Amino acid sequence: MKRILTVQDISCVGKCSLTIALPVISAMGVEASVLPTAVLSTHTMFPNCTCKDLSDQIQPITRHWKQTGLEFDAIYTGYLRSAAQIDFIRQLFADFRSESNFVFVDPAMADHGTLYQGFDMEFVGHMAGLCAQADVIVPNLTEACLMTGVPYQNHFSQEDIQELLCKTADLGAGICILTGVSPEEGRTGIAGYDRESGETFFYSREKLPASYHGTGDLFSSVCVGTLAKGYAWQDAAVLAADFTAECIRLTLQHPEEDPRRGVNFEEAIPYLLKRMKA
Ligand code: PXL
């Protein structure tokens, strides 16, 4: 069985980060080990959430793993709390990466043109440094703009996307997949670039009339799980995008739910497994 180590927070309520990565990766038949970076009462879109930073646990935990001889097929980082924590994660990459595994970084820190609460440009600089160490990165357009210094716009032309893709790839990761890319009004998808082969890849589908918290985490979890299973990155990205859309479609069927609780990914798991068998 393939094994992924996922490094991100536990938000106790409001599906995102580990409460998405664990069930989704497990459902795909891939083992999910965790390194929790913080415990929050809810994700940060609920006002007044509590947060206990767990940075001081990273070194003792990873030292124990190293002494025990544990290995992982992939290391997947998501929401991280501080610049100092990112430096611990760089050390984790140095300690656990090998010829046969890969590092996947979702620089989860911003959306819709703005940084999430609590982050600043110093943090962005550290996250760009972490992306430079990765084999695969999956920033959304806001995150890509912040890390490259490209001004964020509400609409990016095809040429703008090409340029942003090149600049983001220049951060240093092997494969860069931009999410939330709209090639035309009413559609959304991804734009990817593989530095080794020079291949560019685009995929889009109809844009559903809603945006929920945690969809980036769904995309990343499916992408890293399928990559660990040996899918080509383009196929991984297409399945991740389709699964995320299916989750949004199912969530829209229940408008009475508080949208901050997150997307209905649970009822989309059969769809994911069916697609993986196809
Ligand atoms: O989905 C990204 C994410 C993860 N974890 C926490 C968050 C967010 C986005 O705001 O607040 C705690």
Mean pLDDT: 97
Rg over CA atoms: 17 Å
Task: Please provide the count of β strands.
Answer: 11
CATH superfamily: Ribokinase
What brief labels describe this structure?
alpha/beta, 278 residues, UDP-N-acetylmuramoyl-L-alanine:D-glutamate ligase, nine-stranded mixed β-sheet, binds 3-hydroxy-5-(hydroxymethyl)-2-methylisonicotinaldehyde
Descriptive notes:
With 278 residues, this protein is α/β, with parallel strands linked by helices. It has one domain (3-270): Ribokinase (UDP-N-acetylmuramoyl-L-alanine:D-glutamate ligase, 3-Layer(aba) Sandwich), CATH 3.40.1190.20. Helices cover 41% and strands 22% of the residues. It contains nine helices and eleven strands. Strand 1 (3-13), helix 1 and strand 2 form a beta-alpha-beta unit. Helix 4 (121-132) packs across helix 5 and helix 5 (141-148) packs across helix 6 (158-169). It is globular, with a radius of gyration of 17 Å. The two termini are 20 Å apart. The structure holds 3-hydroxy-5-(hydroxymethyl)-2-methylisonicotinaldehyde (PXL). 3-hydroxy-5-(hydroxymethyl)-2-methylisonicotinaldehyde binds at residues 9, 11, 16-17, 40, 43-45, 79, 108, 116, 213-214, 216-217.
Q: Topology, pairings included?
A:
Blueprint: E1 3-13, H1 17-27, E2 31-42, E3 51-53, H2 55-68, E4 74-77, H3 83-96, E5 102-105, E6 110-111, E7 114-115, H4 121-132, E8 136-137, H5 141-148, H6 158-169, E9 175-181, E10 187-194, E11 200-206, H7 215-228, H8 233-252, H9 269-277
Parallel strand pairs: 1-2, 1-4, 4-5, 5-8, 8-9
Antiparallel strand pairs: 2-3, 6-7, 9-10, 10-11
The chain binds 3-hydroxy-5-(hydroxymethyl)-2-methylisonicotinaldehyde.
The site of 3-hydroxy-5-(hydroxymethyl)-2-methylisonicotinaldehyde has 15 residues, from strand 1 and helix 7.
